[in-house]
Amino acid sequence: PQIWEDPEVDLEALKLDKTSRIMTIASGGCNVMNYLTENPEKVKVIDLNPAHVALTRLKIAAIKHLPDYESFFAFFGHADEKRNIENYDTYIAPNLDAFSRKYWEGWSLFRGRRINYFTKNLYQFGLLGRFISLVHILAKIYGQDPREILEAKTQKEQGEIFDRTLGPIFEKKFVRFICNMPPALYGLGIPPSQFDDLKGEDDMADVLKARLRRLAVDFPIEDNYFAWQAFGRGYDRAYKKAVPRYLKEEYYETLKANADKVEVHHTTITGFLQSQPAESLDCYVFLDAQDWMNDKALNELWGEVVRTARPGARIIFRTAGDDSPLTGALSQDLLAQFDYDPAQSTEAVKKDRSSIYGGFHVYSFRNSTKAQSADKEAA
Predict the structure, then answer these.
(1) What is the distance between the alpha carbons of residues 370 and 379, in angstroms, rounded to a whole number?
(2) Hey, which of 65, 99, 117, 311 has its CA 20 to 30 A from 148?
């Protein structure tokens, strides 16, 4: 339900302005909402997962039709109140498309209508939400409470609490055994095919421990909403500091004004790009989708990027491991049409508060004049 890519890092890399036309994968739709705060011209959203499509459309309908900021924050900031169902039925449902309404009003096993998730803490559901729940259960088995980290007053104290509580769990034989099973990482969105690349020469338990420690320690806990979700299973409701920017009151009116700039499509990335005009997009956000693609799919995708990109278009994505999958996968002719920014890519990984991914990659499309100049220099 919450996207685990830091939108602040995205925005720094994308350099959006009022003429920006963005194509992004939906996932939980948080990134879409955050991009709207920068007043882009258009946001084209695609996803093959019907749940992601329905959730993104729900957020757009909610910002447009709920009566005020407090009801919007209750819906997505709390996501566990009975009034959310009343507000859905009164304000959102009549304005929701048929596809998404059918999804949210459909029935799930044991829980009734899916919209009821918003009375039971939406963020406990979904693949990653259930994975985090299992981590909490595991911590309690070993006598630890992940929520203790949220009580830290300084980053030094965050480190001390982690090293005393959660860190030692990764030394347990059972935990190390589980961590070394490739399917176990599926809950983190890491494909089994990436297991060896991510692991390297280390034990996987040590790799995961290091990333969890980065989440717990490397950023102030007071405004790291990724840490609040991981360790506390919710956002900072009292002070609203540890929340995504789209849930902050200061951006509420901007979001309402820009909501009509979003269009959401239930399709594949490459299939969507094939339907778009040439030179029509400035920004591409692929999340970690390319970790799941083979070389043929990557070449087809980036061929469509070349066709649809405006000169200077920026492309960002994340990977489970450190390295970009494009090197060695794309044809030389394709790869030569893009510039890679290693400095910003490295810096972005350090700044990403979610701490899940090993790599963040920033590419820009070379305009024809620049490409021809580079070819002449190479000759």
Answers:
(1) 14
(2) 117
Predicted confidence band at 373 (pLDDT cuts at 50, 70, 90)?
very low
pLDDT at 97 over 80: yes
pTM as predicted? 0.91
Lowest pLDDT segment from 87-101, 175-189, 205-219, 307-321: 175-189
Q: Do residues 198 and 257 share a domain?
A: no
Q: Kindly report the average pLDDT of the chain as a whole number.
A: 91
> Residue 82: CB partners within 8 Å, gap ≥ 6?
119
Sequence-separated (6 or more) residues with CB below 8 Å from residue 351? 6, 8, 9, 12
With 0-12 / 13-18 / 19 or more C-beta atoms within 10 angstroms meaning exposed / middle / buried, residue 169 is buried
Given 175, 210, 232, the domain boundary residue is: 232
Residue 255 belongs to some domain of the structure: yes
CB 345 within 8 Å of CB 362: yes
Residue ranges of the alpha helices (H) in the chain?
A: 7-14, 30-36, 50-65, 69-73, 83-87, 98-105, 126-141, 155-164, 173-179, 195-199, 204-217, 225-232, 252-258, 269-274, 295-308, 332-335, 342-351, 368-378
Reported confidence tier of residue 199, pLDDT bands at 50, 70, 90: low
Q: Is residue 89 part of a domain?
A: no
Domain extent at residue 174:
125-232
Q: Are 190 and 280 in the same domain? A: no
Confidence category of residue 213, pLDDT binned at 50, 70, 90: very high
Structural contact between residues 294 and 326, judged by C-beta atoms closer than 8 angstroms: no
**169 and 260 belong to one structural domain:** no
